[in-house]
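[Automated response] Your request has been received and processed.

Submitted sequence:
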Amino acid sequence: MDAQTRRQAIARRLRESTAPLSAAALARELSVSRQIIVGDVALLRAGGLDITATPRGYLLPRLPAGITCTFACRHRADQMGEELNAMVDQGCTVLDVIVEHPIYGQLTGLLRLSSRYDVAQFVDRCKEEAAAPLSQLTEGVHLHTVLCPDEGAAGRVREALERLGFLYQ
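Generated structure:
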């Protein structure tokens, strides 16, 4: 398979997929190295395809209907799972985490977490990689962009974060 055909196959798989696709899985499927896939994705992005890289793999953004809210939070690193579960338990999707770095400005990490399973996988991967959350750069202060199905769900997220003492005021 030539490079152009392979990139078309990657784009097709991303359009068809309802879940993130890892570079390793695409590499196995297309019989190339993971690094070839990473390069192909870079070229597809340069060509205008809006590919999002998440901790679980690549995807094309498809957001369901709803409202987008931003919550300012502060907590210890070991409370990250509890915070994320408080949001997904209300039927919401945690789209990202944002911190304000004194040198680099705004840093955003894409998350796209919609369930306790997603949260558990994310927290486990952080532990496996010994990766500190972005909020460690800002003494625990960070923002989350959250997609909620309606105002009621957004209110429940706010209440849950307040109850846990994570809502930064």
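Summary generated for your ticket: The helical segments are 3-16, 23-30, 34-46, 80-88, 116-129, 151-164. The chain has two domains: 3-59, 67-164.
If you did not submit this request, please reply to this message.
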